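Quick start: what a row looks like.
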Amino acid sequence: MDAYSDTIERQNATHFTRRRTEMNVMKNMEAIFLAAVFLAGVTSAASAASTNARERYNAQVSIEGKQMAVVTVTAKRLTAEEKAAI
């Protein structure tokens, strides 16, 4: 082969190697992005669960050093006629 053909072959080989490396980097970036999104979702779900547990614990009343659950019922009051009907 002549020198020109050798140069072309080397350039093509370098080009394909560089392109393959760029594609691998893009695949890795996609994987990193998906892992980051997954971790963000798991973290926010865990944070919400711990906040709810803390709110439930704080809603309890302490009597003689023991925690007791408190139930709050909200409803409209009955009028005198409604009470008489019952």
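That is the whole record. The helical segments are 3-58, 80-85. Residues 3-85 form one domain.
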